[in-house]
Amino acid sequence: MDLNNKDTHAYALLHNAYVVNHIREFEEPLLRAGVPLMTQAAAAIAHVACGVLASRPENRPRNQRIVVLCGSGNNGGDGLYAGAILADKGFDVCAIAVGATLHDGGLAALLQAGGKLFHLCDFFDTPDSCDGSIEGHIVKSTPAEAVELVSRADVVLDAITGIGAQGPLRGVAKELVNAINHSEAWQSCTQSTDRAHMQCDCTESPRPSVIAVDAPSGIGVDDGSMPGDMLAADVTITFGALKPCLILPPACFSCGRIIVVDFDFPLHTASPVARAMDADIARKTIRLPQHTDSKYSRGVVGLITGSAQYPGAAVLSAEAAARSNVGMVRYLGPDRASNMVLAQLPEAVLSPGRVQSWIVGSGVPDTDDAYDTQREHIASLLKRYTDDAAGTDLHDVDTVEIGAAGNNDPERNDIPSSHHGSATDIPLCVDAGALSLLPQRVSGRVIITPHSGELSRLLKRYGETVTAQEINAEPYRWARRIQQFTGSTVLLKGACTIVVGPDTNGDIRTLTVDSATSWLATAGAGDVLAGVMGALLAQTEAMTDSNSSTPISTVDIAASAAFIHGNAARAAAGMRPWSLTEHIRRYDKNVNFQVTQPSTIGQPIVASELIGSLPQVVEALFSDSVS
Ligand SMILES: NC(=O)C1=CN([C@@H]2O[C@H](COP(=O)(O)OP(=O)(O)OC[C@H]3O[C@@H](n4cnc5c(N)ncnc54)[C@H](OP(=O)(O)O)[C@@H]3O)[C@@H](O)[C@H]2O)[C@@H](O)CC1
Ligand SMILES: [K+]
After folding, report:
1. What is the pLDDT of residues 266-321, one digit of tens each?
2. Which cofactors does this protein require (predicted)?
């Protein structure tokens, strides 16, 4: 795969997610030309099912019972044809119909191959094609019997709904999926939703492996929401292109490993709604040192972080920045925090001077209840980032009267001259307490890094009343909304982080970053992320100064910081680096279907441990071990 060319089909197939309307546009001419897409899809599903069966724990000696949950649309048709292929191979296959009808051809094929059908609907309409020869192979069943069948299966194909799903599962489909999730087989398996931990820890009585056909039924295909009951998958086999739900939270946590069947869709003709972040993008944000370098040319980060109340955030953000490949860190803050920074990082410079990026707000109180000098300084800096402040020289930060030290750094003029620019020239990241100081409207060069609670408060300022819980249920929707309100680049923190903002052409670009581990949900992790962000912003600025590369969008830089941060957490927790290609694969005959993962589950970490891992994560970006 040519990872250097973002336009290649192979790259788009594994990274770019397209909405249902685009998928329909892609498939339409192929179907019109008579390309047997359903047959191809079914063959791939059957092959994947065989692989999954072969990879299941050996304490299930038969490993041959397959249940297909079928809806009445083409998704059900895929499942039925796949069931027919598997029945032909000698597996014990039955389908469970949740609707009043089924795909005619698919059902006929299944029955002819020796499969059975159980239907749950009182008004099931047996197709004419199913004549008397298959009598006894179509059986009316109850939900309880269906759950029993499912529980005794080795593999379940979830073919209830695909891209034709409308809203949450309803009727019999909802009832069945709900009952399966509450069945003993499912309840006895505790499964982490962290993809890296994904393994069934009940080896004595493993539940069936679930293969979702195209997408797990019941999830919001276009927006990654989970509006109701759904069956979490171990593997999702998807057709033609990634769907947004496969990479957007929260749905992405219920999709398992993803296998994409290539139908040669002209992917380059449509804009993806979201893209999966990978090491290749992160690598481009690292400026390797050169023999002509000075500390200034490698990037200088300015931090207005920490406070008298939370001085630890100053240490974490400053050290994380210093360890993420920059020449210098300037820290500006109250005495207590400054002293702590200096004790931990004697290399830090505590005087004002020129910087190539600003990080503000980590560890700063978020209200003006008590007077705080940091808030005052940040407010004064942020004023220059409002639309009407364009043209202000931001390099003379000493005029902002930040910190106790007022001496000019004699070497400050070593910062490249291109940085005598306007207000939006120095990229800035607004974190934590500074979010409440954000001007109404800023440029895309301003990154905001809220978690859902902070985003809830921020949205209120723009007239939207939405709780953190509601944001967690639809993070993509709310990340886009705040991006539209503010104009900024938005990094919405979460187990899968979403980054939305303008690309270098001004078009909105969304990246999802899935490298984190749930061990990362710990105090101070956000301060470390802010430091990494500052370092990447400063060094990409330094790259632009030396004209050594094409411009990198702020979205990519923000996503890269989250990616590196996530992998640092994984390293600190003793886990392997996250790998996109391990998680999302193109279908071919040799694709690996392993459901359980031998990787360690990792161990608890504290935020300061991430910092020590940052240099090795940066180094690993340039080796082949991360992708
Ligand atoms: N893309 C490609 O190239 C290819 C696509 N292919 C496949 O076609 C699939 C799309 O098929 P599709 O258009 O027939 O829609 P599909 O997903 O079966 O859903 C419609 C059915 O679901 C039902 N239903 C809807 N919402 C529901 C709910 N909330 N709760 C319960 N039921 C609900 C709805 O019921 P109704 O509303 O009609 O009562 C109807 O019966 C696609 O995902 C892929 O698998 C492959 O064959 C080959 C190549
Ligand atoms: K499905």
Report:
1. 999 999 999 999 999 999 999 999 999 999 999 999 999 999 999 999 999 999 99
2. Mg(2+); K(+)
Q: Do domains 14-125+133-274 and 296-620 have the same CATH topology?
A: no
Percent of the chain exceeding pLDDT 70 equals 85
The CA distances from residue 238 to 54, 127, 260, in Å, are 20, 28, 5
Which helix (H) or strand (E) segment holds residue 284: the answer is helix 279-284
For ligand 1, pick from 214, 217, 267 the residue to mutate: most ligand atoms within 8 Å of CB: 214
pLDDT score at 599: 62
- Using the mean position of ligand 1's atoms as its centre, give its distance from the Cα of residue 164 in Å: 4
Residue 123 has pLDDT above 70, yes or no: yes
- Which helix (H) or strand (E) is 80 found in, with range? helix 74-88
Please state the ipTM of this predicted complex.
0.98
CA distances 449 to 168, 249, 430, 552, 575, Å, are 31, 17, 7, 19, 25
Q: Does domain 14-125+133-274 have CATH number 3.30.830.10?
A: no
Ligand 1 centroid to 97 CA: how many Å? Answer: 14
Q: What residues are in contact with ligand 1 under a 6 Å CB criterion?
A: 23, 27, 37-38, 41, 71-78, 99, 161-170, 173, 213-214, 239-240, 263
Does 274 belong to an annotated binding site?
A: no
The protein residue whose alpha carbon is closest to atom 19 in ligand 1 is 164
CATH number for the region 296-620 comes to 3.40.1190.20
Any known ligand binding at 598? no
Judge whether 96 is annotated as a binding position: no
Confidence check: pLDDT of 436 > 50:
yes
According to DSSP, the residues that pair with 511 across neighbouring strands are 275, 499
Residue nearest (by alpha carbon) to ligand 1 atom 44 = 75
User: Residue 416's pLDDT band (boundaries 50, 70, 90)?
Assistant: very low
Q: What angle do CA 488, 491, 494 make, to 5 degrees?
A: 155
How far, in Å, is the centroid of ligand 1 from the Cα of 161? 5
Inter-residue contact 353 to 408 (CB < 8 Å): yes
